Amino acid sequence: MEISLDIVDNLKKTYTKPLYTKDLSEHGQITCIELSQFELSQDVVLIGFGNKILLGYFKFTDNVELEIISEFPIPCRCTCLSISPETSLSAVPNSLSFCGAGTDFKIRHIKTDLENESFCKILSGHTSYINDVKFDLDDKYLASVGDDNTLRIWELESYKCTTLHLNFAGVAVQWHKDDPSKLLIADKVGVIRLYNTETLKPILSFDSGKLLSSCHWSPSNNQDIASLQLGELSVWDITTPSTPIITSLVFTEAGGYLKFSPQGDLIAALNPLEGTLKVFKTRLLELKFSTFISLATNFCWHYKYPLICVGDDSKFCIWKVNTL
Questions:
Q1: Could you give the CA distance from residue 118 to residue 120 in angstroms, rounded to a whole number?
Q2: What is the pLDDT of residues 1-22, one digit of tens each?
Q3: What is the CATH number of the domain that holds 304?
Q4: Which domain holds residue 79?
Q5: Which of 187, 176, 182, 101 is nearest to 144 (CA)?
Q6: pLDDT tens digit string along 239-257?
Q7: How far apart are CA 231 and CA 247, in angstroms?
């Protein structure tokens, strides 16, 4: 099923004031952000910059606000981040585990209790830009894909690396909590594959036929996968992967990012070139929210609440989405 949105609507630059904004200009320009997608650490936030990563924590009182509690220096620009499922700042001692990829083509795995114990392991192997990194749900492996046409899976106990050579640059990699036997990999030419996590052999694939910039597997429904290619948003059902179940032209510019909400009922898509963040009902692609963002990086949903967090130049912004 294909939906064509009015191009005039796509060009409108509507602006909705954020629910909350924190100025981080003293640290430079935000390059990427990551919110924890695990219940134990649902209020943990990482914010990447040109030479550091900030650790933040959401505080919910009368409103929401972000408290910066630590920073980690790095020697290059941070390109993507991932938070481990073992992270928890609600117990004593604290346990923080995350990784950040940099423009030096290395991944830094950092573990700390934020007081006495800290550890940083540098993972080398990629020979070009790293586009995505993800921990598995049991915190045993770390998967990464990049412009060097490889998937690399690191065993976190020994840091032994297994490399799978891809036909094209990898854009996204993802494990799923309800289907740990499969690993999703999407490449830049538009092919999305599910691999067996034990054998690293492909199980099924589907092809958007267009250059792909982002892909996400619904956290709440392991049958739904969304992709963004040349401004076109598609939702796929992996039980019938030959064609998407719905497609819509949502941006007039190529590139961008998309993510399902943790509940899976909404999909958000961000196009930095167009300067637009949009939120849609998942299987209808009905527009529910739209706002203009001048210098956006990427974005993340909060684990529990319908909050979207975006890095806008040197500002950390939060918008609340009406789910009704």
A1: 7
A2: 554 444 334 444 688 999 999 9
A3: 2.130.10.10
A4: 2-320
A5: 101
A6: 988 899 999 999 999 999 9
A7: 11
